[in-house]
Amino acid sequence: MKIQDRTFIISGGASGLGKSSAIEIIKAGGYVSVLDLSDEEDGKQLEKELGPSAKFFHCNVTETESIAKAVQGTVDWVKQTGKPLGGVIPGAGIGLPAAILNCKGQALNMDDVDFVLSVNFRGVIDLVRQAAVHIAKVDPEGPDGERGVVILVSSSSAFDGQYGQVAYAATKGAVASMALPMSRDLAAWGIRVVAIAPSLFNTNLTAGMSDRVRKAIEDTFVFPNRAGNPPDFSILVKHIIENPMLNGAVIRLDGASRLSKL
Ligand SMILES: NC(=O)c1ccc[n+]([C@@H]2O[C@H](COP(=O)([O-])OP(=O)(O)OC[C@H]3O[C@@H](n4cnc5c(N)ncnc54)[C@H](O)[C@@H]3O)[C@@H](O)[C@H]2O)c1
C-alpha cells in the first residue's frame, strides 16, 4: 500500500518507536495522527516538531471514551486534509516489571497486573476495533483492493520473557497471538495485520535500565551486537505498509537475540 497521502493513527506516537514511525511515515509523504498521554502543550510542541502532516490527540488507551474522542478527531481532521486513513499502529505500551513472587516472598500485585493488561492488551484491541470501523470505509486501493494495515507491537519477551516479566510477557504474547486471527477477521475489508516483536530498543521505556541489565541483554544480540535504535524499527514499519504479502505474521526484530533469564 502506498504511504503517500494516507493517514496513520499511532498510539504512543509521542515517544520512542511510535514517534520514529511517525517520522518515517511523514518522510514517505504520509500523515500521522498521534495519540498519547501528553498534555495539550506538549502535544502542540510535538505537532511543531513533526510538521503540518501531524496532528496530536490527547488519549489514554485504557479508556474507551478517550480512544473514541481521538479517533473521531482524526476522522474530522482527515475530512479537512483529504488524506484517507491507511492504518493504525497501537504502539502505546508500558513495562512495570514485577516477579510473581519477589525476593521477600511477596506475591505479584494484581493492580499492577490489571494496569499492564489495560494498556498493553485491552488498549490495543480497543484502538484497533475503533479505528478499523473507519479504515473499512476507505476506497480500496490498487489491484488487491487494500484499505489499510494494522501494525501491532509485540516484544521478544512474548517468546523468551525474563525474570519479572510475567505480566508484560503475557500481554506481549497476547499481542503476537492476535496477529493471525485479526488478519483473518479483517481480510474481507482489505486490511492486513502484522506484528513486530522487537528485542531491546533504546527508548524512554528502557532508559531507566541498569548498566548491568542492559549489558546482559546486549550480549544476547548475535549480530549486530547492540540494542536497536528507533529508526531500525520504523524502516520495518514502512516496509510492512508497502509490502502487500506481509499479513498475519509476527516478525522478530532482534539481531537474533534470545533473552536470557538474567
Ligand atoms: N523499547 C524496547 O526495548 C521495546 C521492546 C519490545 C517492545 N516494545 C514495545 O514498543 C512499544 C513502544 O515502546 P517504546 O519503547 O517506544 O516506549 P516509550 O516509553 O518511548 O513510548 C511509549 C509511549 O506510549 C505512551 N503511553 C503509555 N501509556 C499510554 C496510555 N495509557 N495511553 C496512551 N499512550 C500511552 C507513552 O506516553 C509513550 O509516549 C510498547 O508497546 C513497548 O512495549 C519496546
TrEMBL record:
Superkingdom, taxonomy of origin: Eukaryota
Residues annotated as domain Ketoreductase: 6-199
SMART domains, A to Z: PKS_KR (SM00822)
Keyword NADP: yes
Pfam families: adh_short
Key words, A-Z: NADP, Oxidoreductase
PROSITE patterns linked: ADH_SHORT (PS00061)
InterPro entries, A to Z: KR_dom (IPR057326), NAD(P)-bd_dom_sf (IPR036291), Sc_DH/Rdtase_CS (IPR020904), SDR_fam (IPR002347)
Keyword DNA repair annotated: no
Gene3D superfamilies per the UniProt record, alphabetical: NAD(P)-binding Rossmann-like Domain
GO MF: oxidoreductase activity
Protein name (Swiss-Prot/TrEMBL): Ketoreductase domain-containing protein
Higher taxonomy: Eukaryota, Fungi, Dikarya, Ascomycota, Pezizomycotina
